[in-house]
Specification:
The protein has about 280 residues and is mostly beta strands. It is built from three helices and 26 strands.
Length: about 280
């Protein structure tokens, strides 16, 4: 074996030792030739020839490494079974990663995912969780923050920041010609050049008994000319079921404030249609 071959073989063995995995030895089949080039000092593995000291990736995300350790002898690390799959991502044994709730974390342990189960106050908006105090961009105009108002779940509040907002929708601001989905999940709103809002219902199915809104009229025709105000930070909407006020989608259906830790006035303003237990 040449000095280069010895060095490569030693490096491959060192790599397998660092991986800390069991090894699997494969004998090269008798193909009638020692290598694709007719020289000695090589291995045949998975349809390819390798020189002694060379290695190939194997398995998903190169979770295993196969190396030609000696003439006709391939040694593979056996680490693929130690990886973990969580929420569409693959992690290696020992990796630590967020649980996805902006609070807990998980660890990949011998193919199993173990997560902490702390009870944390976080905010949830459209399936995404935010930590208390976390600030994020809702769109090109509004900056939002996850606030702890003393309850078991936080509330997202937003305000226009760094844009020339001329329309107001609850605490949100929008620029001329900007469109967004109303909080009732049915209406589409647009900020007109003069600063007025126009919201129209779509063909989606609306629920007149939804807990997070109040209807002031069930006639879309009457709603076109109806003038009314909404409680707290609730916003106006109009769809095929009529029109009314709907609250912030980050508000849960109920708050447990029996421990007297809630900021009741702030909760009542941000989430006027949520049940608050005191």
């Amino acid at each position: 074996m040449t000095s280069r071959g010895v060095s490569l073989a030693f490096a491959a063995l060192a790599t397998l030792w660092v991986l800390g995995c069991e090894s699997v030895v494969e004998e090269t089949p008798n193909t009638g030739s020692s290598s694709s080039s007719g020289t000695t000092g090589s291995c045949y593995h998975e349809g390819e020839w390798m020189a002694v000291g060379d290695c190939q990736c194997a398995g998903p995300n190169c979770c295993s490494l196969c190396c030609c350790e000696a003439q006709d002898t391939v040694v593979c690390s056996d680490s693929c079974g130690d990886s973990c799959s969580y929420q569409g991502n693959t992690y290696q044994d020992g990796d630590t990663f967020p649980a996805g709730d902006a609070c807990n974390e998980c660890t990949c342990n011998a193919g199993n995912v173990n997560c902490t189960e702390m009870e944390c106050v976080t905010c949830e908006l459209d399936g995404t969780y935010f930590a208390i105090g976390e600030t994020f961009l809702l769109d090109s105009c509004n900056t939002c923050t996850c606030l702890n108002l003393g309850a078991t779940q936080g509330v997202v509040t937003c305000a226009p920041d760094g844009c020339s907002a001329i329309c107001s929708y609850s605490t949100l601001g929008f620029e001329a010609d900007q469109s967004w989905s109303a909080w009732d999940d049915c209406s589409q709103c647009t900020c007109n050049t003069g600063g007025s809002l126009s919201c129209s219902g779509s063909s989606c199915t609306c629920d007149p008994n939804a807990w997070d809104r109040v209807y002031v009229n069930d006639s879309p025709t009457v709603c076109e000319t109806l003038s009314y105000n909404c409680q707290g930070d609730a916003a106006r909407f109009s769809n095929e079921c009529g029109c009314g006020c709907v609250q912030n989608p980050s508000c849960p259906q109920s708050f447990d404030c029996t421990a007297d830790s809630c900021d009741l006035p702030a909760l009542g303003t941000a989430c006027p249609y949520s049940d608050i237990s005191t």
